[in-house]
């Protein structure tokens, strides 16, 4: 489960694909998500981001690139790998990188972000990606020991307006802060041009999910265009 510095550096300037399906959807099956992930790797994905313990396990067996794992519990507040228990379970399932809520909000188990990250490092050796919603989140997460900083929660925590596409201004602000951590652009990146813009704004790598791995949404875009 340990990721070398060389493997992490190999993600620089590359695409990370998020393979996730929502509960109740036809594709909401761990093996299906692993197959989607494997297809993305064939297309050039340098890493995979996946949700759920079984999904992580199946995906680890299906791909030979780094796996970023998370565990969603709930729908509001801090729900992306919200506790130390969740984070360690994600690492135990095989994730090279544990993605978790990296905001400054109170966590359900009462532990701080620093305590959560420290527990993952000490007990599993996995790296930690902090999903942030603002520059202040990113600064605090870097100080707490996060190995990667993500913009995943930009527009979802009340600190910033939700942009139509990626929050390029936030990406640029975090990049300019020079935190010394890989900056992963994530959130509402729906086209190759937007992915390139995120990279040009200073991102280390870019995560794309919905626009690649969520057929229902992609179909809806086309359907709306034809009906419009």
List the helices and strands and how they pair.
Blueprint: H1 5-9, E1 15-19, H2 30-43, E2 47-51, H3 53-62, E3 67-70, H4 84-93, E4 97-101, H5 113-123, E5 127-131, H6 135-144, E6 148-150, H7 168-176, E7 183-186, H8 192-200, E8 205-208, H9 210-213, H10 215-227
Parallel strand pairs: 1-2, 1-8, 2-3, 3-4, 4-5, 5-6, 6-7, 7-8
Helix pairs in contact: 2-3, 4-5
Keywords: Carbohydrate metabolism, Isomerase
Function: Converts N-acetylmannosamine-6-phosphate (ManNAc-6-P) to N-acetylglucosamine-6-phosphate (GlcNAc-6-P).
InterPro entries: Aldolase_TIM (IPR013785), NanE (IPR007260), RibuloseP-bd_barrel (IPR011060)
Structural features, described:
Helix 2 (30-43) packs across helix 3 (53-62) and helix 4 (84-93) runs parallel beside helix 5 (113-123). The protein is α/β, with parallel strands linked by helices and 228 residues long. 42% of the residues lie in helices and 15% in strands. It has a single domain (5-227), classed as TIM Barrel (Alpha-Beta Barrel), CATH 3.20.20. Strands 1-2-3-4-5-6-7-8 form an eight-stranded parallel β-barrel, surrounded by seven helices. The N and C termini lie far apart (48 Å). The chain is built from ten helices and eight strands. The model has no long low-confidence stretch (mean pLDDT 97). The longest helix has 14 residues, at 30-43. The chain has helices spanning 5-9, 30-43, 53-62, 84-93, 113-123, 135-144, 168-176, 192-200, 210-213, 215-227, and strands at 15-19, 47-51, 67-70, 97-101, 127-131, 148-150, 183-186, 205-208.
